[in-house]
Write a structure and sequence with these properties.
Layout: H1 6-13, H2 15-52, E1 58-62, H3 69-76, E2 78-91, E3 94-100, E4 109-113, E5 121-124, H4 126-131, E6 139-142, E7 145-154, E8 175-180, H5 182-188, E9 192-199, H6 206-216, E10 219-224, H7 229-270, H8 272-280, H9 285-325, H10 337-363, H11 367-371, H12 382-386, H13 394-404, H14 407-445, E11 450-459, E12 466-475, E13 478-488, E14 511-513, H15 514-520, E15 527-532, E16 538-542, E17 545-547, E18 554-558, H16 559-565, E19 572-578, E20 589-594, H17 595-638, H18 640-648, H19 653-661, H20 665-690, H21 704-731, H22 735-742
Parallel strand pairs: 3-8, 5-7, 13-18, 14-17
Antiparallel strand pairs: 1-9, 1-10, 2-3, 2-9, 4-7, 5-8, 6-7, 11-19, 11-20, 12-13, 12-15, 12-19, 14-18, 15-16
Amino acid sequence: MSINKKVKRTIMENSSQYIGSAVLIMISCIFFIMFNVLNINLEKSNSSFKKDYIQEDASFIVQKKIDNIAHLESKFNIIMEEGSTFDYDFSKDKTIRVFTQNNKVNLPAVIEGSQIKNDDEICLDPAFAKENKYKIGDNIKIYDKNFKIVGYMSLPNYIYPLKSETDMISNPKTFGIAVITKNSFKYFNKGYSFYSIKFRGSKDVNSELKNTLNESNKILRWTDNRENGRISYVDAKIDGIKKVSVAMPLAMLILTSILISVVMWRMVKKEFTVIGTLYALGYRKFEILKHYLLYPFTVSLVGSTVGTALGLLTVKPMIKYMVTFFNVPLASINYSPKYIILSFLLPLLFLTISSALVVNIGLRYSPLELMRGGRNKNKVNFIERNLKLNRSSFNTKFRIRELLRNIPRSVFLLLGIVFATMFLLYGFAAKSSIDYLMKDTFENVYMYEYDYMFNSLQKGSPNQGEAYSLAPFTKKDDEKLNIIIYGINENSKYISLKDKNGDKLSLEKTIVTKPLSEKLNLKEGDVIKIKGKFDAKEHTVKIDKIADTYIGDNIYMPINKFNTKFNLPQESYIGLWSDKKLDLPQEIVLKENTKSDSKKAFDSVIEPFKYVVSGMAFLAFLIGLIVIYVVTSLVIEENKQTISLFKVLGYKKKEIYSLILNSSTIFVLIGYVLGIPLLMISLDAMFKSVTKDINFSFPIIIDKMYLFVGFIIILLTYELSKRLSRRKIRKISMSESLKSRME
């Protein structure tokens, strides 16, 4: 078709608009491919790892050794295996947790090297080995015994290697896991035993199994895999990636569709006379529509091709980056042709359909109306008609009318700024929220440095440290919800709980944490019915106060009340808190946690997160620059004759720049302000969805400093866009106004 020859020329003449659209599509496709292919690979690897290496459904610790494992396996249709573990401190800041090699449940998966065969061999988790420069073939000394590192491995119950189940962040510099043979483990005569179970059939036998164990033994701790952060955090992260993989590319595609629609409508309006002439020459509506659809088709094809290619290049490094956090064996990368095809088709569909709708509006006019420049060419809209601008200055009236006479363009600018703001502040909000969550919790709530838990109840007043007790429960009508009730000293110096106003709560009350109150919609004075996790006994607990702390589905009550309510001996306790290291017999200590380990893990994660925030800030800057520059280019194109006339009338360059380029300032400001609450709402919904099955919630906070920095970045983007647009204004000659008069 001969009229298609002008497609290339038109794109080159208005290159900024089309290149900007192509770049937005490119960014959208990069995110679409990167997140979706990353998600399916992590999901598939995680799922096959759980299945092939028999991830536990639960683990537990009992007071006495179980001698009838085979009988329990047969009776309850389960797989059960005894495991053993101990912690070895290389230094104050570096600990390794050593496990026995299992052969029934939680089988070690070798990622590199070979499986252990001899008693002098050991396998390490790869992240710990990399951070501490341990290579395959090196020797490592644990206590007085030397081991040869023969491989790197992953355990299905330690996919995210947290030192404690209640931790949030792992730190491979300071903590790792290892596997040795059972014979080697016996040599050390240290640590404790635990049991892992895998249900062959229904999990309904869970309560019956606990009752059977409690008849001849006593369960000290029971952890279902959904309550184990080493497992559940991985699922939560994959779920989060899945949500982002749809929402972010979709938002950018919608933004690009609006941009192309605005550009196409402007082109169609400008060429009404040409279209009317084409109709008169015998061209059919479909042929003309097909011609105009070549513009979005070209833009989407270029943007999606480059974006998909770049997205595929990012997949491998992103998977490698994620695997450093989540210790999952990855056999091969599945690039999924489905997502590659969708990455091409979605931009094409979005842009073609939106452009077709817009072009079709212009093509509904008759040839005569088109040749006259369209119907109601100078119609004033409702808003402008009702504004009283008589007393306003010329500059003010010009800017207001410029905005109101092209509502779609103004809406596009507003949405673009909102999106750029949300994208920019997302990184800042995530950093502020994590910073508040960790620092406020560890500095303002938990005042202890050391946390010791014993393997059996202790009685009497401790000589050192501060005693506490805890017991796990479930909600009576929802066994999936795990609730930890703490018994603490009424005058505790290691726990400080505050309400939403920041006022300190009395520890004589029964206090519930914010995550649990939100999940159960609890208010002060409410009563909840709970059931013991180990013995299935039912209890009721009245809530006196709600603490504004975000970690743990916890309830706190005085320790004397705790012991009385749950029929435990008075002056009994299960753990100690202390601000200094205690000298305790190792045979009675079940686990030891330090607050400094959690802080170091937090700091190690925050450091690389700074680069993520910087990257998001750059992308937000790029998106904002494209949107503002394209809109400014459209304003200049539409006002060529006006700008030329201003020059003829003697307006100075600065005055013209101010009139034409500053008309969008109000939408930039409104867009930034609107972006903040919209971001908070979207983050709140996303975090609630992601954390619904784990025992903490995210505070959605943006530091005021970051709001100021974000505003400065958006403002600088706007100013840079105006600077770039000045060149276009300078190129417009005075003769443009004369040409329009002659036409």
